[in-house]
Structure formats: C-alpha cells, structure tokens
Amino acid sequence: xxxxxxxxxxxxELTLAERTIEFTGIPCFDNGVYLGSVLRGVDITANKQHLKxxxxxxxxxxxxxxxxxxxxxRVPCALFMKDVDDDYRYTVVNGNFADRVGxxxxxxxxxxxxxxxxxEEADRFRSDDTAAVSLNKLQVVREQxxxxxxxxxxxxxxxxxxxxxxxxxxxxxxxxxTELSDxxxxxxxxxxxxxxxxxxxxxxxxxxSHEIRTPLNSIVGFSDLxxxxxxxxxxxxxxxxxxxxxxVLLNLINDVLDFSKIEAGYIDFVNAPFDFTELCRDVEQAxxxxxxxTITFSLILPYDSFFVNLDKNRMMQVINNxxxxxxxxxxxxxxxxxxxxVDGKLRIFVSDTGCGIPKEDGDKxxxxxxxxxxxxQGSGIGLSICKTIIERMGGTIDFTSExxxxxxxxxxxxxxxxxxxxxDTLSGSRSRRRQTLPDQVKKRHILVVEDNTSNxxxxxxxxxxxxxxxxxxxxxxxxxAKKHPYAVIFMDLKxxxxxxxxxxxxxxxxxxxxKIIAVSANVYAEDKQQAYDAGCNDFFCKPIRLNDVxxxxxxxx
Length: 557
Known about the structure:
Elements: H1 2-6, E1 10-16, E2 19-30, E3 33-43, H2 45-74, E4 78-83, E5 89-93, H3 95-101, H4 113-116, H5 119-135, E6 139-147, E7 150-162, E8 168-176, H6 178-228, H7 232-263, E9 272-275, H8 276-287, E10 295-310, H9 312-329, E11 333-342, E12 345-352, H10 382-392, E13 396-402, E14 406-414, E15 417-426, E16 445-449, H11 453-462, E17 467-471, H12 474-483, E18 488-492, H13 500-508, E19 515-520, H14 525-534, E20 538-541, H15 546-554
Parallel strand pairs: 10-11, 16-17, 16-18, 18-19, 19-20
Antiparallel strand pairs: 1-2, 2-3, 4-5, 4-8, 6-7, 7-8, 9-10, 10-15, 11-12, 12-14, 13-14
C-alpha cells in the first residue's frame, strides 16, 4: 500500500518534429507491489493551437472592450444604450451622460427614465424612444433644459439596433448645441437686421435724392432770377432764399458725412474748455433768421457764463439738430432752449409746442433712416447721429411728447465745470451780433492760396475790404511769402504741384509768426491734425463763412 501511495500518475508534454505529444505514465501494482508504468502518448498539437487561438481572441476582445470603453468615455457627448425589450432600461452610459443626469453610472444602469427624471420629462423621453423604434430609423430630437443652473440646448440622436438573436436595443448620443443654437439665432437676427437696413438704405437714398434736389431747385432757379433782375428788393429776397436753401443743403451733406463716420465706427472728439452760455447765445443768433415769425424762440440761461470741458462743435451739432427738428414740427407757438447743471452733469432741454410724437412711433425716433413724416424735410439720420454722439460722450438722450401739445428732448452729459457766474434767469431773444470788419484791420495784406478760381473769388468777395493777393499753388505761395509779409495766409490743402501741407512746412521754415489758416473740404480729424502738425494756426472747413474770416483776422495781433 505504501508503495502504491508513493507512485503517482504523471503527464508530460514533449515536442517532437514540430508536434506536441502528451505522455501520461500510469503506474501498475500487484498486491501492492509496483510492477511498472504504462506510458500513453497523445498528439495534442491541434488542441494546443486551438487553445492559443481562443486565448488570443479573448485578449483581442478584452482590448477591443477597453478601447470601446475608452472611446465611449472620451467622446465629447452624452452616450447611452437602452434595452428596448426590458422596459427601455439603461445598459450602458458614459461619464458625460452621468454628469448630465447628475448621478453616478452605477445608479443609472438598470434604471428607466421614470426612475431618474420627473414624470413630464420621462414621458417625453419615452415618446421619443418609442417613435424611433416604431419607425425603425434614426430620430433627431432637440430640446432645451436647465443644466447646472444654466440654459442648455441638447440635440439627441436616437437609433434602434437589433442583434443576431433579434434582441432590440437603442443607442443614443446627446450633443450640447447651445453655442451653435445661439449663433444661429444671432445669425438670423443679423440677417433680418441686414435686410431691414438694406430696405431702410434704399428708402434713405430715395429720400436723399428728393431732399438734395429740393434746395438745389431753389438755388439754381433763384440764382438765374437773381442775374436777370435789377430790382434791389427782389435781389435781396432772392439772395435770402438762396442762402436759406444753401444752409439746408449743407446740413444734409454734414449729416451724411457724419453718418459715414459713424458707419465706419469712427467719431472724433476734442474736449476743451468753452462757455456753454455763449454757445447757447450763438445758437440763438444762428437761428434768429430761420425761425418763422409765428414761433417765439426763448433761452433760459441759469448762468451768465458757464465754462465746461466738452467738445464744443459736437455739442453745437446736437443742439442745432434738436432745434432744427423742433422748427420742422412746430407751425405756431414756441421753442425753448435751456440748460442746468446737476450732480456733475450738464442737462440740456429743447422744448417745442409742435405736433408731438405718437406713442407707437416712439421707438423709431432714434432709428437711422426713419422719418415719421415723409413730407418734412430732412435725411432721417439726424437724431440717430445725436444719440451716437451723446452716448460716445458718456451721456444719454431721451424725450417726452404728447400729440398736439409738443415735445421735449432731454440731453444729459457728464462734464467738469471750469468756471461759472450766477445770474438771474434770462429768457427771450437778443440782438444778433454784427458781422462787420473792424476798422483797425482793414487794408491788411492777405494771401489766398487757392487753385480753384471760384473759391478764390468767394474769399476775395468776403474780404473785399482787404488787400488780397492770390497764389494758385504751394510753390507760388512759398515764393510770395518770402517776398512779402502777410497778416494772414488762407491755405488750401489740396492743390497741384505742391499741396498746402508741404507749403506750410516750407513757410514755417523761415516764418514762425504769420497766421496760416488751413481751408479744406476734408473734415476728418486726421486732416485737421495733419494741418496743425504742419504749422497751421487754425482749420476752416469749406464752405467758409464771413464770420470765419472775421474771427481769423480779428485774432491777428
């Protein structure tokens, strides 16, 4: 027995001639006496190869599962699978889906939508699922939900799948398309805005054609009549009509130029101290001849002088525009301009007793190209320009109105006060300042540098009490400035042979004192700065006015 116990059956594999043989030794006993072993050999080469193939397949399958799991986890969307035949229970979910649901994956797998979501939302998901299965094709669902406290737009792709055994499942992929959805909304808004702007621009061009031709018709017609009549009274009346229509045309052109700069995203501001009370009086003077006799114009000025640090020209532009609109809308009654200073802000009010603005049209007031009354003169961009200017200055503009009673526009602009003098409230009209040439500067020697003969003749007419000479280009101007001392040089900037900028630089090389006034049809800030950098003392935009000429010469020491 002990001998039997010490003898065991053993199995060994040997490779012989590329074959694998499995040898098994079986011990034999006789009455407990070990007689020997029976050796059995079996060729297991095919079995070994089959086992290896199975192991390799298992390894490949495991690698594929790992890769698939990695892809599922790393794909930038919420991915899930449901067992259709088991009440649409979740069988596979990735981390993004679990994050969206707000639960770990272990709490989602094996559950239905009714276990995870509110009843209304679960009903919606089940309806989408059953529709995809019944139609047996891909379904795309877009929905808006709140996720982590924020609005999210999801687009989910759901597709039924059937395995070889006929078992039905469903795979779903949810993508966060919030940014894309918002971009499409903004794109549609931009498209609608562009289409509306195109319509408005077409209307604007048609309106501008009418608005430009209307004053031109009067200018051309009365210019012909002025030439053919010798009656002094008729000549004065015709001249006044021509002047008024020229002002209308100039304002239209200025509006279009300003609008062009606004469209390009560029408006220049040059802040400097000036007397706002004086500006209001200048506005009154400028409009004294334009306001019909049926309208009373009043000023309410709380300070005799009130120096602020703002862009004077831009403030003048806004006030002029508001008063021009008031005149268009008022046939009889009054127009009032007043201002006050409260809490570091300059407040300006332009009131009229005109037709008023209907409530339904209130939103259109500051919209470019919009005209509430197509029979009123104007480009339809003036108030839009005013709004842009005031907002760029850090202020606000608004209005109150009542149909049949009148309108008040209110402008509020933050401003530093330089100096002010209190006085009793003033109102009513004041006499216009005389625009005459002072005796002490008459017969001063003036040089006009201008290549255009008509422009030169205009300047000579404006300065008929002066000794005026002409240079037709920059080269002549430099030579004449070397030979004669001039009180003032009016320098056109755009000329042949040598422009005004270069001519000014050359004159400044030998003459630092003579006042040089740049005269140009270019009105942009860079044109002005270029003239100042060259050595010009001032810059006048065409068309030049008698008052500009007087100011230029009165400042001559």
